[in-house]
Amino acid sequence: MELIDGKALAKSIRENLKEEVDKLKKNGINPRLAVIMVGDDKASKVYVKNKSKACEEIGVDYKEYLLEEDITMDELLNLIHILNVDKNVHGILLQSPLPKQLDINEAFKEIATEKDVDGFNPINVGKLSLNQDCFVSCTPYGIIKMLESYNIPLEGAHAVIVGRSNIVGKPLLQCLLNKNATVTICHSKTKDLASTTKNADIVIAALGKPNFIKADMVREGAVVIDVGINRNEEGKIVGDVDFEDVSKKASYITPVPGGVGPMTIAMLMVNVVKAAKARMK
Ligand code: NAP
Predict the structure, then answer these.
(1) Concatenated DSSP letters of 147-186
(2) How do the pLDDT tens digits run along the chain, 281 residues long?
(3) Active site residue 118
(4) Closest atom of ligand 1 to CA, residue 138
(5) Which terminus of the chain is less hemmed in, N or C, by CB atoms within 10 Å?
(6) Against a cut of 0.85, is the pTM above it?
(7) Does the beta carbon of 109 lie inside 6 Å of ligand 1?
């Protein structure tokens, strides 16, 4: 079994990006990411802190917009529209979840496509499904980068994704299809999940259930990617895969923490630099 070291890979991506940011600055472009956060969600605070640290490390300006829990949709859209036309802002990120009165999909729709570094605007979602150049959402993008960096063949491979969310499962399905994998996507209504996952060359667990995927659900030699970030009863961060159990059978496996998480943030940085470069052109 080989461990897929997302932390180390993410570090090397950030190091390369730092050089690109330096070049952009020499050409008068000062890349900036604007992050909008509404309310006081604890997990979101941790995520945005990690994003700001990554920006600082590679030399990207980071600007946070903290909005009150009870803001209206009009107020949120107004801020998005201001950032859309701000020439100093290259990437806009709206941190989820949002309070109930706000419609996140309506908000994503308003983020300018060329600043949509999370790839959640329906135009970018559509372009991904057409295999056109676009901003690819960061978690699926990071998973593909990891698989490719470890020379894991995707063409012709059978990949089974567990979870069909708009931010992970569905865009990952498109990314893998674009790489000529055969893809099956499972969800809470899937019958006999284990019989499907056992057929996979690559299993990607993105369901948000601690230690859900066990060794008897994967075949010998499978590649196992764990997207989950969950807290167990002891308050420890664990993935959706029972690492101890599954690592005995897998050929490659990602740890949690230190797997998909850092890659997600690294790919966000890739997208911010891409957005800034596009401005230079
Ligand atoms: P989500 O929106 O809650 O979606 C979960 C998906 O899993 C749904 O499609 C659901 O099916 C499916 N599911 C739930 N229970 C299942 C079961 N017993 N069997 C089969 N499918 C089941 O979750 P998400 O936002 O995609 O996040 C998933 C996990 O990844 C979470 O732990 C989250 O914290 C983590 N995450 C990590 C990163 C990272 O950077 N590492 C990024 C994003 C998310 P239905 O559609 O039928 O309800």
Answers:
(1) HHHTT---TT-EEEEE---TTTHHHHHHHHHHTT-EEEEE
(2) 999 999 999 999 999 999 999 999 999 999 999 999 999 999 999 999 999 999 999 999 999 999 999 999 999 999 999 999 999 999 999 999 999 999 999 999 999 999 999 999 999 999 999 999 999 999 999 999 999 999 999 999 999 999 999 999 999 999 999 999 999 999 999 999 999 999 999 999 999 999 999 999 999 999 999 999 999 889 899 999 999 999 999 999 999 999 999 999 999 999 999 999 998 87
(3) yes
(4) 40
(5) C
(6) yes
(7) no
